Each structure stands twice: as structure tokens, then as C-alpha cells.
Amino acid sequence: MRAATVVNRRNGYLLAAALLLAAPLVFYPLLLTKVYCFALFACAFNLLIGFAGLVSFGHAAFFGGAGYVGGYALATLGWPVELALAAGTLTGAAMGYVVGLLAIRRKGVYFSMVTLALAQMCYFFYLQAPFTGGEDGLQGIPRGRLLGLVDLSDDLVLYYAVLAIVAAGYALIVRTIHSPFGQVLKAIRENEARAVSLGYDVARYKLLAFVLSTALTGLAGATKALALGFATLTDAHWAMSGMVILMTLIGGMGTFVGPVVGAFVILLLESKLDEIGDFLAELTGIDWFHAFGTSVTMVLGLVFMVCVLAFRRGLVGEWIRWRARPRGKAAGAAAAGGAAGAGNG
Amino acid sequence: MADATTDATTDATVGDHILQARGLTKVFKGFTAVAGVDLAVRRGHIHALIGPNGAGKTTCFNLLTKFLEPTAGTILFNGRDITGTGPAAIARQGIIRSFQISAVFPHLSVLENVRIGLQRKLGTSFHFWKSERSLTPLDARAMDLLDQVGLAGFAREAAVALPYGRKRALEIAATLAMEPELMLLDEPTAGMGHEDVDRVAALIKQVSAGRTILMVEHNMSMVARISDRITVLQRGSVLAEGGYDEVSRNPQVIEAYMGSAGQPEAGAQP
Amino acid sequence: MMEIFGVPLPVLWAQLLLGLVNGSFYAMMSLGLAIIFGLLNVINLSHGALYMLGAFFTWMGLNYLGLNYWAMLVLAPLAVALVGVVVERTMLRHLYRLDHMYGLLFMIGLSHFLEGLMRSFYGVSGKSYSAPAALSGATDLGFMIMPNYRGWVVAASLAMCLLTWFVIERTRLGAYLRAGTENPKLVEAFGINVPRMVTLTYGFGVALAGLAGVLAAPVVQVTPMMGANLIVVVFAVVVIGGLNSILGAIVAGLVLGVVESLAGVYYPEASATVVFVIMAIVLMLRPAGLFGREA
After folding, report:
1. What is the complex's ipTM, to 2 decimals?
2. In Å, how far is A117's CA from the nearest CA of chain C?
3. What is the pLDDT of residues A53-91, one digit of tens each?
4. Nearest residue on chain A to C293, alpha-carbon basis
5. What is the pTM (predicted TM-score) of this model?
6. C76 with C211: CB under 8 angstroms?
7. Residue A100 located in a structural domain
């Protein structure tokens, strides 16, 4: 049974790879590129919330901040792409280290509030700081060449480059969970007091998880700035923090693919919302539905509420549960690679 | 881990004290739970800490395991002051505690539960880039420990699936993985039926070889059977100390448990 | 004319008053948050949206129903309380047994929903609302000219805050509430209907937000986003004062409103950030907040 599961998983990866490589034939490459950036953001966030059990409400600060740094490096300093992305990643890591030091000492809801409050500080800093372009943000960020060789000005080339970057980030996350460090994290999440009594300095492990999460968030933010060509305050607003939480929740907290699915679903919903609104308006004759397109937040808010009340496992989480149910223990244990986050169902 | 400067074969009969508490006190917002407790645990002993409900045993235990900070007093381990040291640090020095409830990692397998303790030795606990397969060399030792507590057959099961008695055994196996010099057990037989109590008592006696054990306990027959020395607490202070025979005949102890003079039955659970 | 650090005194007084006005809003909002957090252990992230609803109800009351300010002063908070009670009863209640994170997430969703809803009806531009005739104009206090409405805001808010503080700290009802935050099961054993107490507490907490909204309507633009802009500072205030401290919420709110305002006089660029800087310092030195106790 286990060999079959391993083969299944390998086939799954091959299938996914094939789909991702061929996807530009069906969808606009730039739309997919945007999805991938947010997918990495969501995966990095999920590392923290789903696997380390830490609820950060301020991840947008890292996402936006890295976007500014990366964008500034590309646009104003003329740095090569890989250095700009590295700068963004390091920004995320450094900020995460500082915030982590302050926040991790607190437990539960206090931790979340501290991250939110510190993120707000960052937001106001971005608003005032000269290099961010204030309310307008950074526009027209050039794409340049990756590693001096690959010209990213073509949308399709950019697609594959971003796919590679995001896939690498994803792979790192998977490896992190299935590493000695990941084991300790799991133990801490399951029974923190016991982990302490076995000699683990829990705070340091949480801090590393936090920094890893913010570093990858930084990579996502810088990549997004590169790919879409702009970095604005929206990326650092607390609504963005809420957005990434929603993506992770609807996709499936504590799963691997969940955040990717969630990013896809939410962004797709966002881009198709006005069409859906118009359709509903035609269907029901109620004019108000036409406003759907402009009130993305309202629909997302509703989705958020519904998910929290009735759909906490998320799409992938529910799918895993459905697959595990009739076949007994072995398939269930193998499929649930990384138990879902705290307090589910 | 045993401290390098302490010879692991120190003779228990020499009577040196592996753990000492002097004037240990804990005050909670006007309520004194532990008042100036002096405790000396001899190396190699099984030392029991008993007392009626509300005597302050659990608080004392939490103070000794550093899950609570003392209001006053000092704690010495192998002659070293650990009063200010944190719980994770004393674990690294060789003091490992157990918990009264839920002391396993529920969704880790039984094997992983034990392996998590062994893992620290490798020093790769922060290496997020390494595969978890780098931990498989530890599996043999983990299985060995599981074997000692009779859980080898459950290695791949999720810990949450084990019956209560076996969870306790798992906890002991995981504690052993740390190679503790001093084991602190918090009511190891709590909530157990007769056979389980006997099994755990035998297990504790077995693992006490070459180690010291301090346990908080309610079960008198078990304490009578395996402990070398008993400290009786009442209302936050030490009431009596000595071997079982000596302590069980002490009229103050009898009164504390029974409320009147008269022998408590061996096996009575106050 | 006397000057302090180059700023004329009347200007300073005016800024001080402005600071007190802002501080009053901060105080009332923080107070509502602290009350709700104390009993429900949920940080009501939708507080800003409910404040906005209070302002909108006030505007709607006048423009749709012809009800004046004084009527809305009572009705708007009640309407907001009703919304709160319905939400708590039908949805929030189911989340208490779960990890606190879900309560927070639900609140984020609720605030997005309410803001988006209002935006879909009314767009982004602000609606104006005039102060009632009795409170318009200004009074010459000698050392400064005080706009009457602003004086009213400060007085009304302070009165409400003190009344709330009194009820919670000094009455039996308040004692039940405080006991309920520490040990709900025990309070239930005394025959108190704890779920109902929770619902009413939530209703009251959001009613405070709604009241702040009514008071704000003549002062700020009534827009769907007005709550979102306010709530972030309120969170910082709450963190500084202590998440579950009634007194901390009131004091921190007022003081920080004034500090922010005065900072705006001397260092305009910094005024937005000064609250957060203080918050960072408090977090490092006294993480539970100035008046709070960490659970």
C-alpha cells in the first residue's frame, strides 16, 4: 500500500508539472504569473499558520516591503534581477527577525495583535518614506534579464522564470516540513510543554519558522513587483494580510497544495467577479448585482465568513478527508501530510 | 545529558544529593502554596513526594521542573544553582519531567514520539534543508526503547490511538530517550486500573537503575513498594520525611490523611 | 501672544481640543473592544465597520426617515447593537469552542463584508452631515474659541465612558460580567444565563462603536472606509492600554489622542506614526499593556 502511495505522489507531481508547463496555452501567462506570486505568498504564510501554529496578521508588511525594496533595486538602482529578488528575500527575513523577536514572546491572540500593530507601523513608514513613492507607489518597474541571460520582457519567458522561482520556494517549504526542523515544529505544535521538557528552546524554533516564512514572503513580494511592474501601498495594507489568510483558509490550512489552490481560486474570483455580477443581474433583474465588480471586498468578506463557519478545512483539506474516509488508516495517514491547523471542526 | 564533570557511576550509597531545594517558596497573589520547603534527593533513589490534596505537591513539582518561578528559595542540581534556569535548559542538563495528562505528541507516530528526544543529540534540529531521512539512524535506538516498555509493536501507530496506560509507557520511553540523570514523574499512575499500576510501577523500578527518580504520587501501595524515601507535604510545608515504615507510622501523617489517629491501610488512596 | 516652542497658545489649545475629540473616539472604541475581549475573548475586528454603520444609520435616519440627530443618538447605537446581537447569536457563537484564530478571521470577513456592502450602495465618496442647530457655532472660552460640537463630543464621550466604567466596576451587573470573564462555568452555576450575558455584552460593546459613529458623523466625512482608517489606530491604543483593561482603554485613548494631535503641531510627518512608536515601546517594556494583565 505504501509503495502505491509513493507512486501516486510521483505521478501527481509529474501531472502537476505537465499542467503547469502547458498552462500558458490556455490561460493568459501574466494572469498565471500573478497567481503564482500570491501562491508563494500563501504557501509561506501557511508554513507559519498551518505548520507552526502561529497566526500572523501582519504578513502584508513583509510582502509589500520586499516589493518596494526589490522594485527600487530594479528600477532606481538598476540591479540585475537575481540580486533584486535576493534583496527582497533578505528584507523579508530581516524584518521577520525583528518582528519575530518582539512578537513570539507573547502567546495566542496577543501574538496576533502584536504582528498586526507592527505591520501598521510598517505601513505608515512606507507611506512616508521617499523611496516608496508614497501613495502612488513604484511604477514601471523594468523586467531586465535573469542571470544576465534570460530576457524577461516577454510574458511567456517571464511565466516560466516565475514558475521556476515559485516552484523552488514551494520545494523548500516541503523540504522544511519534512526535515529534522519540521519534526520539532510539529512536536511543538502538538504539545509545546512536552517539547520544552525535552530540552527544546521553543521560542528559537518559532523564530526560525517565522523568519523562513517572512523570507519566502519577501521573495513572493519582490517577484510580484518584478512580474507586474509595480509596488504599491495596497501590497502592505492589512487587507492584504487578510487576503492571504483567506487564500490559505479556503485552500486548506496545513496542507501543501492548499494555499496554491486558494490563491488560484481567490484571484480567479476577483478577476471574474464583475462578469459574475452582471450574470446575476441579468438572471434576477436586480440592478445592484452590477456593483459586484467594484465590491470585491464584500464578496471576499462573505466568502471569508462562510469558510470560517462551515468550511474550515478548505478545499484541499476536505478533499484529503474525502479520499481517506472509505479506505481506512493507511491512506488517511499517508494523504494527510502535515495535520491541519489548530481547532479544526 | 549527564554533565561531563559528574562521574555517571557515582556510588548512590555515598549519599550525595543530586537535587536539593532550600527554603523553596511560592506565593500566588496572597496565597502561599509552598512555604519554605527543604528537600534533598539522594542519587540513585526513588524519592516520592506525597501529601493530601492541596498540600502543594504539584506546585512544588512545577517549581522543581522550572515551569513555575519560585518566589524565594534555591534549587541545586549536582551542587549547581539552577534556580534561575529555564525549563528547556534544565532538560538539557539531564532533568526530564513527565506530565500528569497528555504527555505525548498525539499525531506523531509512537516511534516519532521517542525519536524526537533522540533527535537533539544529532544537533541538526534547526537544519530545515535536510531531509527527515537523516533521522532514520536513530530509529534503531528508538525501537530499542520502545521494546523496553513493551510498545515495539505499536511503532507506526499514531500516539493518539494508544490506550491510556500505553500512552504513559510511551511517555516513559520518550523520557528515557533523553538519558536523564534525574526523572521527575508527575503522578505516573494517575487514573490507572490495578494491572496498569503494577506494570508502570515495575517499569519505574526497572528504569531507576543508574538514575534518580522523584515522583509525586497518590497511590500508597505503589509508593510503599518501590520508593526508597518519602517526603510528606501538608499545606505547603514538609510534614515528615523518611522510609515508608517510618512515615506511615508517624501520627501527624496519619492525622493529615485520615483526620484522626489510626493506621492507614497499605494501598489506601487518600 | 504667548508661544510654546514657536506655536501660539490659541493654536495649541485648538489642537488640544482636537486631540481630545480624537481621543474620545479612540477611548469609546477601545472601551468597546476591551469589554468584548474581556468576556468573549474575541478581538472584535469588525468594530470599525460597526462604527461606520453607526455613522451611516445616522445619515440614513435623517435622509430617509427624517429623524434628527437627537433621535439617532439613541436609535443608531441601538440599531448597531441589534446587528451585533444577530451576528453573535447566529454566527459568532459557534466559534467560541474553536481556536481563537477563527473568531478573528470571522471578524475580518465581517468587516470586509459590511464595508463592501456599503460601498456597493453608496460608493466611495463621503456623505456630509451637519451638526444639529443646538450644537453649531462656537463659544469663546477666553483662552480659545471652542466649536460647540467638539465640546459636546468630548463631554458626551467622557460621560459615556465614565458611566460604563462605573457600571462595570461598581455595580452587581458589572460584577457578574467580570466574574464571567474569569470563570464562566462558575457564574453559570450561580444561575446567571451566561450565553445571554455574552450576547448582551457584545451588543453593548458594538453599541459604543455605533455611538462613536453618531458623534463622528458631523465631524468627519461619512464614508464606507471611515472605520477602516480609524480601527488601526484603535488597535494600537488597545495594545498600549491593555487588551482587557477598561480603565486602560479610556485613559490610553484620551492620552494618545492628545499626544497624536500635539505631535501633529510640532512634527506633522510623525503624527501618524507616534502612536505606533509608543506601541512598540510599550510592547517591549510592558507587553501586557500599561493597565493590562496578560491572561
Report:
1. 0.83
2. 6
3. 899 999 999 999 999 999 999 999 989 999 999 999 999
4. A110
5. 0.86
6. yes
7. yes
